[in-house]
Design goal:
The structure is a single chain. This protein has 151 residues and is mainly alpha-helical. The protein has a single domain (2-150), classed as Arc Repressor Mutant, subunit A (Orthogonal Bundle), CATH 1.10.10. 71% of the residues lie in helices and 10% in strands. The chain has a two-stranded antiparallel ribbon. Strand 1 and strand 2 (95-103) form a beta hairpin. Helix 4 packs across helix 6 (71-83), helix 4 (43-54) crosses helix 7 and helix 5 crosses helix 6. The chain is globular, with a radius of gyration of 19 Å. The model has no long low-confidence stretch (mean pLDDT 90). It holds the Pfam family MarR.
Length: 151
């Protein structure tokens, strides 16, 4: 029974990226962000927006390290986001070589929607955790540690 439950969980996690992207697009419509929905953002673009929104003046190298993507991939994604008018490139007065990114007003809206979906997901997990007492949570924690260490 436990193995079947674990298999179902792994299947869910494998499909998570598609589920996450669909949930983001559903929230864009639900919260009235049709202008951002129309930009057909990929999950990787949302994650770059999220990284830029959470950090002050990140450059491509920083973003690639944070998201564990190549600088080439970040370059392509940021170019798309600039064309979609969700981010803008900036240069510092004393460093004209390096490009740093900031969010546009629409980029900030996309960032906020991404935050909302993570908040909703976190609330669901907290609700599940609240069903268990401290001893049970410790057992679950030990199990997850063992699983991660063995796999």
């Amino acid at each position: 029974m436990l193995l079947n439950q674990m298999a179902a969980l792994f299947d869910y996690l494998n499909d998570y990226l598609q589920t996450h992207e669909k949930a983001l697009n559903d929230l864009l419509i639900e919260y009235g962000y049709e202008n951002i929905y129309a930009k057909n953002l990929m999950l990787s673009e949302f994650h770059v927006i999220d990284c830029i929104g959470k950090n002050r003046l990140p450059n491509a190298t920083f973003i690639s390290k944070e998201l564990i993507l190549t600088k080439g991939a970040i370059s392509k994604i940021t170019a798309k986001l600039i064309l979609k008018e969700l981010i803008k490139p900036n240069q510092l007065e004393n460093n004209k070589k390096e490009i740093y990114y900031t969010l546009t007003s629409q980029g900030k809206e996309a960032y906020e929607v991404h935050e909302k979906i993570h908040d909703l997901g976190n609330k669901k997990v907290v609700e599940i955790f609240n069903k268990y007492n401290k001893e049970e949570l410790n057992t679950i924690s030990r199990f997850l540690d063992d699983l991660l260490n063995e796999l």
